[in-house]
Specification:
The complex is a heterodimer of chains A (about 110) and B (about 120). Chain A contains no helices and 11 strands. Chain A is an all-beta fold and about 110 residues long. In chain B, a hairpin with a 6-residue loop joins β4 and β5. Helix content of chain B is about 0%, strand content about 50%. The chains are: A mainly beta (about 110), B mainly beta (about 120). Chains A and B meet through β4, β5 and β10 of A and β4, β5, β9 and β10 of B.
């Protein structure tokens, strides 16, 4: 079963705009990760944030985590057409396996 | 390329046939995971190994599914008597267990179509 939900399910923006997607989860976690998946391909790890962290940056990515609300957000700044992909959050739920959300499909138009 | 590799990339089979997929993890990684992903959904955990030991299996992994990692290196996932509902992308991932890193590195996946 899925751990949680991403919101929105789909997002369309123009190049240069920022994209924000949210993730909610159900159980306590040690860390939360975001992955990107291009159409029909494997997943690429983007960023990991630990449960004792509130914000983390990596290049054009900014991730926040609110453990009291069991939610996280991923912000992609100055988006590019190459950012078009599905984005998934994944939590460990205190175990060694990853539990993924349902994903946000991002479309960036040139 | 020293990433995770999976073979085959695509498999079309008839219902009732057996299929086997292979995953070669990143060489220094001691953990290997199998996930299944259906269209429009996120990956769902199936099973994982630490070295050659299978440590956890999802209830999604019915008796028709079996996974092995005989020498703690590559792994195989076999599906017996395939059903149309088995059609999905099967993803393999590997990681190195440590207190500092939980990142999993995914292969390109094997897309199974059962006709």
């Amino acid at each position: 079963s899925q751990q949680g939900e991403e919101d929105p399910q789909a997002l369309s923006i123009q190049e240069g705009e920022n994209a924000t997607m949210n993730c909610s989860y159900k159980t306590s976690i040690n860390n939360l990760q975001w992955y990107r998946q291009n159409s029909g391909r494997g997943l690429v790890h983007l960023i990991l944030i630990r449960s004792n962290e509130r914000e983390k940056h990596s290049g054009r990515l900014r991730v926040t985590l609110d453990t009291s609300k069991k939610s996280s957000s991923l912000l992609i700044t100055a988006s590019r057409a190459a950012d078009t992909a599905s984005y998934f959050c994944a939590t460990d739920a205190g175990t060694d396996k990853l539990i993924f959300g349902t994903g946000t499909r991002l479309q960036v138009f040139p | 390329d020293t990433g995770v590799s999976q073979d085959p990339r695509h498999k079309i089979t008839k219902r009732g046939q057996n299929v086997t997929f292979r995953c070669d993890p990143i060489s220094e990684h001691n953990r290997l995971y199998w996930y299944r992903q259906t269209l429009g959904q996120g990956p769902e955990f199936l099973t994982y190994f630490q070295n050659e030991a299978q440590l956890e299996k999802s209830r999604l992994l019915s008796d028709r599914f079996s996974a092995e990692r005989p020498k703690g290196s590559f792994s195989t996932l076999e599906i017996q008597r395939t059903e149309q509902g088995d059609s999905a992308m099967y993803l393999c991932a590997s990681s190195f267990s440590s207190a500092q890193s939980y990142e999993q590195y995914f292969g390109p996946g094997t897309r199974l179509t059962v006709t």
